[in-house]
Amino acid sequence: MAITIITNAVIINEGKTFNGSVAIEQDRFIYIGETMPEYTDALIIDAKGKYLIPGVIDGQVHFRDPGVTHKADMESESKAAVAGGVTSYIDMPNSRPNVLNHEVWQAKNALAATKSLANYDFYMGLNNDNVDALLDTDTTGYSCLSDDGLYFAGPGNLLADSEETLDKIFSKSKNIIAIHAEIEGIIHENEQKFKAEYGEDVPVKFHPIIRSEEACVKATERAIRLATKHNARLHVLHLTTAKEAAMFHNDIPLEEKRITTEASVHHLWFSDSDYEEKGTLIKWNPAIKTEQDRLGLIAAINDDRIDIITTDHAPHTLEEKQNTYFKAMSGGPFVQHSLVAMIELHLQGYLTLEKIVEKMCHNPALLYGFKDRGYIRPGYKADFTLVDMDSPWTVSKDNILYKCGWSPVEGQTFKAQVKQTYVNGHKVFDNGEFDTSKKGEQLELLPWEERIYVKNA
């Protein structure tokens, strides 16, 4: 296969920004540098005026496939992902059936191999029903174990709710345990207070008071305390408060951290002042909170207390969202718009482009132990995207690719636009057109002993 050279690009990689070129042979990078390499019969693509960054690895999505495909599926949502510069994702276990054993996990990987345009990995679900059986097996073949989303199947499935269960898990598992950090008892008590006053139609502006700062802070405090006790590997999903962000370390590099966390794009983009306009469209669990919390999360990204940026992409139909408070589903789509939203925050002065690439591309690969991903390096898989930083466009129903057909940022004009996306060296997205002739790959994990949380235990 001929070598492809992308030249005259502004490359952002490993904390540096420079004008240069990359070369690709088959599915891997073979060169990155400031000069254009000389190869015989190479295909040369001039990327003048465009920024070239590694493909985004979204560490938390709900693509709803299998079993809940009236909302989304792997084909539709991976198409939206690559259009947004996302080349890889990790999908949560609350599809149907829930991913609670190896057979279901394998079946989900087999399904993705036939449908997904982006590379994929899947969390193994962990709840009170399977915790003993799972912890008695070898879990090193999974990137992560998580309870997220499983609470929708019934109460009592949030690990953070049970000190005894968390203590057992942290004492036995050496894998990453990723938790949804809220205390259900506090939330239930708040729900009853507001239901007594408003009935079923509670104003959505009270969502961050019902799913409160207290519920999040107490859950995160408990998880950190127990993980520290056992020197366990804890990852706290979708952080929402400045108080929680202050609990995490920034005095050691990611490679040495045993306890890590993330922020999701909607918690960085919206605040509680947006409920009046957006209503239940921005009802997420955990809830979008105050402007002070939003700015606190951004500050924690900049000072490295927060390690990665995800979307928690969780599509529902408009009918499911546009309902009274208790009936409106929690979650919303964001994977198509995550990178351009973060670049918009950069243009507003909140974050550097280098920091965005670190948190969305480099660190997810490092944290979860994905082999040859997340960086532009010779020998690594050629996952990358080309972005025009001065190509304004407005999100509308005509260009939304989610199967659910809506977006919480509909009507928003972004200055940056993803122009091309390559997955494993294959140009899958090009200025609105898709080449679906090749599918993404299952993300390969590093051998157990080479993962950072094992080497530095």
Automatic annotation (TrEMBL):
InterPro entries tied to this protein: Amidohydro-rel, DHOase/Allantoinase_Hydrolase, Metal-dep_hydrolase_composite, Metal_Hydrolase
One Pfam family recorded for the sequence: Amidohydro_1
Any one GO cellular component localisation term in the record: cytoplasm
Residues covered by the Amidohydrolase-related domain: 51-427
Domain of life according to the entry: Bacteria
GO molecular function, one term: allantoinase activity
GO BP of this protein: purine nucleobase catabolic process
Protein name as annotated: Dihydroorotase
